[in-house]
Write a structure and sequence with these properties.
Blueprint: H1 21-33, H2 38-57, H3 67-77, H4 90-98, H5 104-118, H6 124-142, H7 154-165, H8 171-190, H9 196-199, H10 219-227, H11 236-249, H12 253-258, E1 264-265, E2 270-273, E3 282-285, H13 288-300, H14 324-338, H15 346-358, H16 363-370, H17 386-392
Antiparallel strand pairs: 1-2, 2-3
Helix pairs in contact: 1-2, 1-5, 1-6, 2-4, 5-6, 6-8, 10-14, 11-13, 11-14, 11-15, 15-16
Length: about 400
């Protein structure tokens, strides 16, 4: 009996990793611009992503893509792979793989991705956005042809931004497009290309980040959420532990998903956070309530697996790690069980910051707990610091106070 193999995927971010990740973004845009249906694009993109993971696991490079390598993947690897991303439509998969030969834009995106990785130390999610935005601009200007930077005019960039704005309904979203293009043009300028003037075309949209209060749970809503924990049912203990990690530690959903059994030091009462958004490792104290929720999950609900991830899948294939979407879904369900009409998991991170301020912590202490690189990021919570705001509040005009 042939033993089924699976592609090694140690982290959720690796689902789109490998030497062809830049090509996959460009290829998706190519199919979209040529009118292919969304379902077909998704299947083709999954095929290239699967090929890319396999190439990464076998130490193959992007310049090795050829008919022989594609044949090896289709005829040798696929029949013995149990990976859930294996496509049933072999003809669509073959068509997607034949299109993975590096175009000039694909080669350019690979060079830019290497720069973002080695020179700027950017995380995968940030690089993915940058590659997608730059790929769309270059494809709109040159298609599959050779890249000639002097041909990129200011009107090209302006028209591209107008087109992108139709797909982004928030200023923060279009800001990421502008930021990605500015970063790319600065890099090309250092290489001697005449694109520095294009940076002036890229103007950030008006967006007053500190104009509104950060949304948080009210104290009574926190009590309502906590009171709804501990219910019996499938996956309830996992959801309880995830909620506690977000509410008590202020962890982001991706950080919760990446937690490992080896990150917890039960004797010292600490938990280590590795490879966070700030690309650093941090050690935080483990609250008793959080530790107890984790123990309940480990003791009574976590299935046996070969890997060391704290939170695991409870359906086959169990050896694949969970991703941030699972954490966000579990927290949304916890809201629903508590009768709260909220959906965002990041709300619990804001709530934790608000509770720290209410308890007498300074903004610097909140910044340390939230692991912000810059104190400016934490300043939005100054609006929640009622103790300090009372000291600087002016009397209402006409009042006797």
């Amino acid at each position: 009996m042939t033993k089924l193999l699976s592609c090694p995927i140690p982290r959720e971010s690796d689902l789109e990793a490998g030497p062809l990740v830049s090509n996959n973004q460009c290829y998706e845009q190519y199919l979209f611009d040529h009118g292919y249906a969304a379902g077909y694009i998704k299947r083709c993109k999954s095929g290239v992503a699967h090929l890319s993971r396999w190439m990464g696991s076998t130490q193959k490079k992007a310049d090795e893509v050829c008919e022989a390598l594609v044949a090896e993947f289709l005829e040798v690897h696929l029949p013995i792979c149990s990976c859930r991303s294996v496509l049933h439509d072999r003809s669509s998969l073959a068509g997607a793989l034949r299109a993975t030969e590096l175009t000039p834009i694909g080669e350019e995106l690979q060079r830019y991705d290497k720069h973002m990785t080695e020179a700027r130390n950017l995380v995968f999610s940030t690089r993915k956005v940058g590659i997608a935005v730059v790929g769309r601009l270059l494809f709109s200007c040159f298609g599959d042809g050779r890249i000639n930077f002097p041909e990129i005019r200011a009107e090209h960039v302006r028209n591209f931004l107008i087109q992108q704005a139709t797909h982004h309904n928030k200023p923060t979203s279009i800001r990421s497009v502008v930021s990605s293009l500015r970063s790319y043009f600065r890099w090309r300028t250092t290489l001697g290309d005449p694109v520095h003037s294009l940076i002036g075309v890229l103007v950030y949209p008006a967006n007053w980040q500190l104009a509104s209060l950060p949304k948080t749970l009210k104290p009574e809503e926190v009590e309502q959420l906590v009171a709804a924990l501990g219910q019996a049912g499938p996956l309830m203990r996992r959801a309880d532990a995830m909620v506690r990690c977000a509410l008590d530690l202020g962890l982001r959903s991706a950080e919760v998903a990446r937690l490992s059994l080896d990150d917890i030091d039960w004797r010292a009462g600490t938990i280590a956070l590795r490879g966070t958004k700030g690309r650093r490792d941090d050690v935080m104290p483990l609250p008793v309530s959080t530790g107890q929720a984790i123990i309940e999950y480990l003791s009574h609900e976590r299935p046996k697996t070969k890997h060391r991830m704290l939170f695991v899948r409870h359906v086959a294939p169990r050896e694949l790690p969970i991703g941030p979407k699972v954490v966000r879904h579990s927290i949304r369900q916890a809201y629903a069980r508590a009768g709260l009409k909220y959906t965002g998991s990041h709300l619990l991170r804001h709530t934790m910051a608000s509770r720290l301020l209410a308890g007498g912590s300074s903004l610097k202490e909140v910044a340390d707990v939230l692991r912000h690189r810059s104190l400016n990021t934490t300043l939005i919570y100054a609006k929640l610091d009622s103790r300090s705001l009372v000291k600087v509040a002016l009397p209402w005009p006409g009042s006797t106070a």
